[in-house]
Write the structure tokens for this entry.
Amino acid sequence: MLISTVNQWLLKPWVKPLLWLICALPVLALFVGALQDTLGANPAEAIIQETGEWTLRWLWLTLAISPLRDVASLPALLRYRRALGVTTFVYGLMHFLSYAWLDKGLVIDDIVRDVLKRNFILVGVLALGLMTPLALTSFNRAIKAMGGKRWQALHKLVYAVALLGLLHFYWKKSAKNDLNEVMVYAAILAVLLGWRVMRKGGVMGMLRVR
Ligand code: HEM
């Protein structure tokens, strides 16, 4: 009874606009914080860190849709996976742009040198690079043009993006010996990927396109 009510509620036309509004809230809060000068002693660092953490949070939420849909019997949840995936990419892009602008003053040479010098930055660039084709093919026309199987195969890259994002976060925090939060993200990802591995009968099953 409750499940079917939630499913019906999830089909209401106003849910998607509400979700987009919720997705915009963290960046709006940062914007207001920057205008009111309430982001702390180092606003640039706060913006880079917050957009980075939100990229990870949206990605984890995107990956949570399929397990939640099955475990809670909420098929209508699937309608919102694409919006969460696109939000992840937009936050990743904002994270990169805030780093490139606020930390590196948009000097391309400095950015390239940093990418080559710091493994943690290189891994972030790789994660965002792999996310880009996923975002560019997230529209119905692209899915149709590619065909379902090729589209599905490409979108398996999301697992690599998640692992690289986590490694990027781990490297950043391990330098400061501050791993508590990283462990929480790692544990959640283990559940999200572990569920897929179990359901598909192994890692190869999870990666296979059906
Ligand atoms: C071009 C790609 C990227 C670059 C250049 C980049 C750069 C950075 C930098 C410089 C920081 C450290 C900020 C500080 O000084 O404290 C950082 C932190 C972080 N980044 Fe990235 N990043 C990239 C992509 C990503 C992606 C794709 C994700 C998530 C999937 C991500 C998640 C994070 C997280 C969670 C943090 C730590 C925030 C915290 O300290 O609380 N980054 N990134």
